Task: inverse folding
């Protein structure tokens, strides 16, 4: 048995809030509305809900169950846990994806998180309001200029066009350090305590912004059609071309791929992080209801808050053209490029810009949502370094800090057109999660076996999983995933591979990821034999079954 001190969650609510905190993030408020608007509006929700029920929720249960099972052997990282379940090297090495993905995503996500903090700060000081000017016709272009200068999107390097270091770099330093301080404090005292405080504050901020948006009415009498109801219709009515039936969007493969990718990204499924978080549960803690509760919380934030705020607000002030161009402005562009212009349109009360308060609440809320997510990207690798190298918290935090600082620096430095960010997001944040999801679903449904998997899931469970999910996990989820993945590769890979072959930053980003992959794989190769011995030891001393199949 591992001699490391065993970490555990402090409370039941704490672990659910931590998993929900991981899931609720920028994906819910920025990525979701953009994806839905671009991919059929209301029609998008059909593949979205199918992917949710047929793949994502079963996978949540599988991740929660496998994680808690691995924790029984004293393991907390995907390679060790997959090795215990699959009982061979193939599965152990496939667990590398459960480290590479969260660490890779962290490298750019922490930068986006820094933007949120920076924007919240500039609303607090009023700087952004001053820079957007007083002429409504200029808000949109000034907002774009502010963004480009803030992140350095016009040129590589760390200085912005007007001279001086890009402001985003300072906020990056703060955000980065804060993440590592919390991680250093550990599961219960760091992550859990922070999520218990941050999640309610975030919820209150989100509701305040929602109420403001839903009470906008028809602010511009010259444009009576730009009202809240039409804003909601813009977001939610199924879109179809002239003369086409509403379901026409469903014939487009891209809509299915986008919906599936969005569900995964948003629920933090297929990243290996739920496996890690669940490994800190006690053996009889419920996983079925907890998994469902965390997933439902995420859906509430995504569909009800993310879906009602961002695009309807853009529509009310900027009309169809503004909302459409915002939605098309890159995955996360809507929030940073378009919304500041929207907030400027909110009325003045007693000479005070109400949009300034809404802007602050909005970006502060995004910052909290993002940090509870980024913490979950670091913890799997911390656990891995500790159990893989047999080192303590301090050393693992220092090592991971160094690795992620280098990777993140790469993203910040090559900020022109945000190519580095986009390349890493594409490969790890979209492509690889399909692969890890397939690995996990096969490991749970076929290697551990659905019967044993369900038995394990139901130990201490507060509710039962309907029996037909056995069939879904074993047959439907892997088939659905495989078909979507193949279609997705056919649609997207050729252009991306050309981009890499052209050299430049895209190639550099791939090399960063490759270096990380090789490093992690080597560590797994070194740690594997020791883990095997530890597993046998646990087996003998506690009489646990080792691995699957029996
Ligand atoms: N689910 C998060 C969001 O919607 O923003 C993103 C995320 C969290 C991705 C944790 C990856 C991860 F490991």
Result:
């Amino acid at each position: 048995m591992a001699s490391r001190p065993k970490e555990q969650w402090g409370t039941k609510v704490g672990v659910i809030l931590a998993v929900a905190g991981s899931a609720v993030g920028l994906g819910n408020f920025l990525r979701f509305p953009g994806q839905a608007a671009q991919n059929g509006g209301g029609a998008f929700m059909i593949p979205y809900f199918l992917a949710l029920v047929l793949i994502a929720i079963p996978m949540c249960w599988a991740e929660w169950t496998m994680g808690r099972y691995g924790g029984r052997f004293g393991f907390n990282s995907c390679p060790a846990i997959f090795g215990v379940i699959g009982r061979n090297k193939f599965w152990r090495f496939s667990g590398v994806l459960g480290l590479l993905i969260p660490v890779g995503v962290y490298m750019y996500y922490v930068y986006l998180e820094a933007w949120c903090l920076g924007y919240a700060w500039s609303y607090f000081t009023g700087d952004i309001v001053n820079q957007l000017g007083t002429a409504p016709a200029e808000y949109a272009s000034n907002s774009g200029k502010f963004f480009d200068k803030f992140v350095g999107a016009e040129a590589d390097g760390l200085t912005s066009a007007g001279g001086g270091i890009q402001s985003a770099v300072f906020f990056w330093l703060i955000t980065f350090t804060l993440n590592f301080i919390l991680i250093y404090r550990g599961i219960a005292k760091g992550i859990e305590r922070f999520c218990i405080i941050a999640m309610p504050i975030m919820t209150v901020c989100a509701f305040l912004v929602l109420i403001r948006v839903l009470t906008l009415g028809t602010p511009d009498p010259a444009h009576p059609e730009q009202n809240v109801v039409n804003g909601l219709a813009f977001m939610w009515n199924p879109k179809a071309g002239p003369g086409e039936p509403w379901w026409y969007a469903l014939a487009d493969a891209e809509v299915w791929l986008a919906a599936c990718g969005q569900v995964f990204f948003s629920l933090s499924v297929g990243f290996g992080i739920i496996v890690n978080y669940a490994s800190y549960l006690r053996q009889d803690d419920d996983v079925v209801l907890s998994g469902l509760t965390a997933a439902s919380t995420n859906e509430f934030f995504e569909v009800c808050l993310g879906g009602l705020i961002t695009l309807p607000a853009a529509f009310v002030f900027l009309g169809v053209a503004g909302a459409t161009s915002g939605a098309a402005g890159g995955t996360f562009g809507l929030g940073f490029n378009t919304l500041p212009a929207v907030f400027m349109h909110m009325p003045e009360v007693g000479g005070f810009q109400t949009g300034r308060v809404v802007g602050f609440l909005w970006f502060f809320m995004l910052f909290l949502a993002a940090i509870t997510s980024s913490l979950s990207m670091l913890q799997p690798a911390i656990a891995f370094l500790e159990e893989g190298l047999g080192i303590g918290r301090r050393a693992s935090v220092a090592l991971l800090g160094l690795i992620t600082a280098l990777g993140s620096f790469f993203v910040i430095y090559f900020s022109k057109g945000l190519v580095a960010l986009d390349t890493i997001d594409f490969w790890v944040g979209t492509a690889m999660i399909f692969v890890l999801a397939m690995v996990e679903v096969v490991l749970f449904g076929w290697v551990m076996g659905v019967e044993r998997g369900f038995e394990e899931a139901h130990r201490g469970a507060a509710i039962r999983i309907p029996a037909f999910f056995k069939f879904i996990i074993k047959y439907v989820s892997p088939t659905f995933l495989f078909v979507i993945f193949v279609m997705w590769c056919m649609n997207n890979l050729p252009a991306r591979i050309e981009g890499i072959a052209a050299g430049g930053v895209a190639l550099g980003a791939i090399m960063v990821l490759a270096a990380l992959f090789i490093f992690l794989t080597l560590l797994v190769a070194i740690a594997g034999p020791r883990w095997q011995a530890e597993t046998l030891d646990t087996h003998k001393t506690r009489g646990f079954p080792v691995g699957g199949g029996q």
About this structure: The chain has one domain: 12-239+247-542. Residues 209 and 362 are 7 Å apart (CA to CA). The mean pLDDT is 90.
